[in-house]
Fold:
Amino acid sequence: MAIAVQLGLFYLLDLNLAGWLLCHAFFAVNWSALQYADHAFSPLDAKDGAWNLKVNPFVRALFLNYHHHLAHHQAPQVSWIHLPKLVPHDSPQPEFWRIYLRMWLGPRSIDQVDLAPAAGSAR
Structure:
C-alpha cells in the first residue's frame, strides 16, 4: 500500500526522482535529529527517558506537540492534543537547540552533562 501511494503521488504530482529522494533525505535527517534530541542525555529509563523540550509555539503546533515527548512516554494512551495538559509549568524543559547542538560534541558520560534550563526559562 505504501509503495502504491508513493507511486501515485509521484505520477499525480509529476515528481522527478532527484526531488523525491531529496525530500525523503531531508525528512530522514529531521526525524532522526528530533528522535535523538528528545532522548539525548535523559535518564536511561523506558518511562522517564525523554524530555519535554522547549520550542516556540508555532514549531510545537507544526510537530503536533511531539516535543512533549516525556509526557508521551509517561502517558502513551493520551492523545497528542492533550499532551500539554500533562506538562507541569515548573518542570525542566531544556531548549531543543541546546540539546541538539550538544549532540554534535560527541558522546559523553551522562554524569558530565548539565541540561537544566536557565533560571526563569521553565517554559
